[in-house]
Structure formats: C-alpha cells, structure tokens
Amino acid sequence: MVNSLSGRFLILTIIFVMVAEVLIFVPSVARFREDYLLARLERAQIASLALLADDMIEPELEKELLDNAGVFNVVLRRDEIRQLMLSSPIPGEVAQTFDLRDASAWVLMRDAILCLVDSEWTVIRVIGDPFRDGGELIEVTMDGGPLRTAMIDYGLRILLLSAAISIITAGLLFLAVRSLLVKPIKGVVGHIGAYAEAPEDARRIIKPSATVRELREAEESLQSLQTQLTQALRQKDRLAQLGGAVARVSHDLRNILTSAQLFTDRIEMSEDPAVKRMAPKLVNSITRAVSLCESTLAFGRAEEPAPVMTLFNLAELTNEVLEAERLAIGEADVSLSEDIPAGLMVRGDPEQIYRALSNMVRNARQAIVATSQPGEINIAARIEDADWVITVTDTGPGLPPKARDHLFQPFQGGVRKGGSGLGLAIVAELVRGHGGNLRLARSDETGTCFEIRLPMGDVG
User: Fold this and answer.
1) Key word Acetylation present in the record (predicted)?
2) Range of the domain at 157
C-alpha cells in the first residue's frame, strides 16, 4: 500500500490537508478567543447597567451580576470619568493585560498562542470599547483559566473536524487517482508484459485509449516504439532466412566455380596469344569468386573471417580492381584512374582489400551510369601520420540524405533502385577487421568521396 502510487498519494493528501488545517487553526482559535472576551465585555457592560439605574444595589445582586458576566470587576469610563462599576475580591495579581481596541490580526494570533501555552495566567485584564456607544472604555478583570479551557476544547474540535475532512478528501482523491491514473498505468504495464511475450505479433501492439492527455502521449510513444521493434524483428528474421538462402546458393556456386577452375587450367595451355593474355585474369577472377563463396559461407556461420595480414603492393592490387571493372563498364562513358605510388606497400589481407575496393568502385560506376552522363572514378592513396589513407572518389550525383542516414547498415543504405545496400556494409566490416575505419568524406552534386584509414602498426 505504502509503496504504491495511490497509497503514497493518499498519505501525501492527508499530510497536505492537515498542514492546511493547521494554518487555518491558529486564526480560528484567535477569533474564538476574541469573541469569548468580547462576550465577557458585553455581559459586564449589561451588568453595569443595573448600577447605572440604581446607585445602590445589594451585595448579593452585585455578586450574581459579576458571576453571570464571568468577571471579577467592571470599570467603565464615561464622560472622561473612570468609574468602578462592579467589584468583587480578586484571587491574585493580574498576570496579563489585553487591549482589544484596534488590535491587529497578528497581535490577536500571538495572544491566542500565548494563552494556550501558558497555564499560569489565572487573572487577566481585558480592555475594549463599550457596545452601542455605552461609554468610552470598558475594562474587566477575569479568570484566565476558563478561557484557556474553552480555547483547548474548541481547538480539539477543530482538529477532529480537520482530521475527518482530511480523511474524506484523501479517500475521494485516492479513488479518483486509482480510476484516472493508476488503472490506466496498470493497463499500459499489462500491454508491455503481453507484448514482451511475443514481440513479433503485431496484434499485441498497444492501441492508445487513454483520455488523460499525458497518458495518451505515453501510449502513443509506446505504440510507435513497439511498431518499430516489431518491424525490426521481422526484418532480422527475413535477414536470417536470406542468409540461409545465400549460404545454400554460395555452396552450390562454389562447386560450379571449382569445376570452372579445372577447365581454366587447360585453357592456360593454349597457344593462342589472346587466350594466353586473358587466361590469367580469368583464373584470378574465378579464384576470387570461389574465395567469395567460401567467405559467404563463413559469414553465415559467424562474421567475416579474420584477415590474413601480409605486405602487398597496393598499386598492383588497385590495377587488378580497375582492370576487372573496365570489363564491366562496356560502352558506358566512365573513366577509371589511380593515383598511388608504385612502391607503396600496405599491410593487410589483399583478398579483403580487393573486395572492399571492388565494391566501392562498382557502387560509384553504377551511380554514374544511372545518370547517363560521363564520369570519372579515381582511387588514390597516401601515408598520413601512422595510417595508410585510401580514397575512392567519383564525379557522380552524390548520395541522397536517406542513404546517408543508414549508409553502412545492411539492406538499408542502398541508393540504386533494386540495390540491396550490402556493398558499403561489407566494406565497413572488412575495414574494421583491419583495425581501420571507413567514412564518407564528401558527397554533393559534384560527386562523392569515401576514405579508408588503415593503421600502419608494425610493418616489419
């Protein structure tokens, strides 16, 4: 109960209402005291009228008048004359004098608190204005004990009434909070639990129904989150299924390419000059295709295999990439160039670097061809600080904003219609395997530039 939202709200409501009642208590008690003393002054003034009507009254009648007024004596000032109208023996010295004429609210509240806490005020003097212009001043001496007792009794009744009001108010608020807040919140929690059991089931996505604006906003946010999560889980399931299919295709394709590789061995023995010139490139292409199939099968079991590090000539590898790409260009007006020092040696896995550069050049070529405009692709390299920096630059149309948001995410960063979006994701993973990073250096209407940074490390 105490740890629940409604329980804590109930306790806080009781506390706050009691605090409010306490703030009301002091002025109420002060007003009660003032009315009490004014009533004594009025009775004393009425009692003094008997003496004004008859200068001489019997002692018994005087005592009865004072007892009825609840005072020891009465002093009335009329026509600038101060006159003791009624009197009786006073049981002690006057402990305190209170003047009710033009007393401020603060003074009345202060005197009321002092009266409650001090039980030794047995005799007090009270000064006030006579009622109905019956004089200039009236002063009485009275017992302070009954006043204090009456104030305590009144205060207890106020506190009991405040407690009852607090409990009733808190109970009503408790029921309102449970109905308007706690019940809808529990409903949202129940929806979350049901959705967690089967997040792929779109029927379990929450449907906003709250009438309270804040709760409805929370339900709408939860609905959006659950919708995105369900779609992401479905996509991952499709990717898993696609991965299984690709693995099976790669397995069969590897067998076909292995057979083709056996035929290329015989082609190399041909005496035809053209065949001799093309045969090594054909062998290299088939070898890389077999390697790609094997890597794809490995990817289906885990991630990209760890690179086999070795020192290789980057310029020679780049030339192979560009030569293979020239065959795919055909009649398109796309020129390929490289700006790499002839003796630049790079430490890495040549097969994986070949795949990375080939993917990037292919993407650039496809982007340029799609515009039906001439273009250029350039691969450059340099040494900067402790890194080898390889850039692939094209003069294509640049990347659209949507592609930049998911550039290196599989199946989401595709630019070309019908593209899978795998190319840059594969490149990024291959570069990360070398301890490097791939980033988009520039992309605008003049073209796009990607930058690969490979740490040099120990090249010895």
Assistant:
1) no
2) 5-171
Helices (H), 178-212: 183-197
| Two tokens, residue 67 | 């007892």
140 within some domain: yes
- Is residue 192 a part of any domain in this protein? no
Supply the DSSP string of 35-73, one letter for each residue.
Answer: HHHHHHHHHHHHHHHHHHH-S---HHHHHHHHHHHT-SE
The backbone torsions φ and ψ at residue 344, rounded to the nearest 5 degrees and listed phi first, read: -75, 115
What is residue 122's three-state secondary structure? coil
CA 166 distance to own-chain centroid: 34
Tokens of 445: 């209407």
Among residues 149, 171, 193, the one where a domain terminates is 171
Residue with tokens 């040549």: 350
- DSSP per-residue codes, 408-448: TSTTTS--STT--S-HHHHHHHHHHHTT-EEEEEEEETTEE
88 domain-assigned: yes
pLDDT in tens, the chain (460 residues): 556 666 777 777 778 777 777 778 888 888 888 888 888 888 887 877 766 655 566 777 778 888 888 888 888 887 777 777 878 888 888 888 888 888 888 888 888 888 888 777 678 888 888 877 767 788 888 888 888 888 889 888 888 887 788 778 777 877 887 787 778 888 888 888 888 888 877 778 888 887 778 888 888 888 888 888 888 777 776 666 666 666 656 655 665 666 565 566 666 666 677 766 776 767 677 766 666 665 555 555 445 567 888 999 999 999 999 988 887 787 788 999 999 999 999 999 999 999 899 989 988 998 898 888 899 999 999 999 889 999 999 999 888 877 777 677 654 545 554 344 567 888 888 898 888 999 999 998 889 999 999 998 754 4
Alpha-carbon Rg for the chain, nearest whole angstrom, is 50
The Cα–Cα gap between 396 and 393 comes to 9
